[in-house]
Specification:
Length: 405
């Protein structure tokens, strides 16, 4: 039993979950390239060698009624990380303390499919955001390296067996990997690719997690594995933390405001790392970064290459940085109503859409209406590309026989 009183953590009072909303009419076939899941309590059961005993991730109930994960004897209060879908609006800033305080669709696959049907989501890329840490790197930092590797593999096995395999036409399989040992991380990417995984999540700015920066050769085995297997490297904004906060800043308000800034910085860092130039087949998706900053970045890159002379360190004279962005990068939007007009500068084929279920930025259950509000006036061929064709091509995911519009 973890002594929650000793830790100074009180269980927040929350209101009951809202009733199920009515299913929305489906006007657009939609592949969401950024949603999230919670790991259920039995995620690791039977998937990690028994020699690790009770040091493996498991859920306990505290004296005050919290359900929390415990790993290596340490508590992690991440059961309901940012899950707001289906909760009263006044509870959106109160972190859930128990599994029954969030919709079952957050952690039970059958209920997730029902919620996808309610919101008009044909298929979904699901990021971890609970016991793995946001971005899936927590296991890489466990004191026991062998246990960390075992947890990483067990999570991927659970995702494959319990979350993806029952509904392979509805779930796009995204894995985690071991980032503190890139050779082991690469092995996990190869292992997953052999059984059909098409994506992996990585920290968008690893130096902010005390990992080597993207410019370091540390990352080459993982980069090579992704390029050789066609595994999409998903850089989820915020997986390395909020933007640096000045003293006294309102963290949630300012941090969420600056998501676009983080995405721009991370994208520029990965571009100038030279990895996309060295590995033409590398695929990078800037998850939850929006598109409002992309055309500006392209304009700046063209300027420094053409006039200022600041771009002389670009490693591949056969392709410009802007052309490399269009070849190697994809950009994921939740709405971006005022900047969708920049789509031809970015490249319509490089734009993806997301619902971000069940997080605060999420559009569920009104995702279809949001898509219509943002894309409804575009040419039909562009709507098809952004809502489902680009994602299906990028992730190699099947589409239904009949797509709309």
């Amino acid at each position: 039993m973890v002594d929650v009183v000793k830790l100074g953590v009180k269980r927040p009072a929350t209101k009951p979950l809202l009733p199920d909303p009515e299913p929305r009419d489906v006007k657009y076939t939609f592949i969401s390239v950024d949603d999230h899941l919670m790991e259920p309590p039995d995620t690791f059961k039977g998937r990690i060698p028994t020699k690790f005993g009770d040091r493996v991730p498991h859920v306990v109930e505290t004296e005050e009624g919290h359900e929390i994960w415990v790993i290596e004897g340490k508590p992690y209060f991440q059961v309901g990380f940012m899950c707001v879908a289906g909760r009263p609006e006044e509870d959106h800033r109160v972190e859930p303390a128990r599994f029954d305080e969030v919709r079952r669709g957050c952690w039970a696959i059958e209920d997730r499919i029902k919620d996808m049907d309610i919101g008009g989501i044909q298929a979904s890329v699901n990021f971890p955001s609970g016991v793995t840490g946001f971005g899936g790197t927590l296991f890489s930092f466990l004191e026991d390296r062998e246990l960390g590797l075992a947890c990483t593999r067990a999570w991927n096995d659970w995702l494959f067996e319990e979350w993806y395999s029952p509904y392979p036409d509805r779930i796009v399989p995204l894995g985690i990997t071991y980032v503190t040992d890139p050779e082991e991380g690469a092995k996990e990417i190869y292992r997953n690719a052999e059984r059909g995984f098409s994506a992996v999540t990585m920290p968008e700015q690893p130096h902010r997690q005390d990992l080597p920066p993207v410019f370091d050769s540390h990352w080459e085995p993982i980069i090579r594995a992704c390029a050789e297997t066609g595994t999409v490297m998903n850089l989820h904004v915020g997986s390395s933390g909020f933007a640096p906060m000045p003293p006294g800043a309102p963290m949630l308000e300012l941090g969420s405001t600056l998501f676009g800034q983080i995405a721009l910085g991370a994208c520029a860092e990965w571009l100038w790392s030279g990895w996309p130039a060295r590995y033409p087949d590398l695929k990078i998706a800037m998850s939850e970064g929006g598109i409002g900053w992309v055309a500006m970045l392209m304009d700046r890159l063209d300027n420094i290459m053409a006039r200022s002379g600041y771009g002389q360190g670009w490693p591949d004279p056969s392709i410009s940085p802007t052309e490399c962005l269009r070849r190697n990068f994809w950009f994921c939007m939740i709405d971006d109503p005022s900047t969708i007009q920049t789509r031809h500068t970015i490249g319509v084929e490089n734009i993806l859409f997301e619902s971000d279920y069940p997080h605060g930025d999420g559009t569920w259950p009104n995702t279809q209406q949001v898509i219509d509000d943002v894309l409804g006036d575009l040419p039909v061929e562009e709507i098809r590309m952004i809502t489902h064709e680009n994602a299906a091509k990028l992730y190699g995911h099947p589409l239904p026989k009949v797509c709309v519009p």
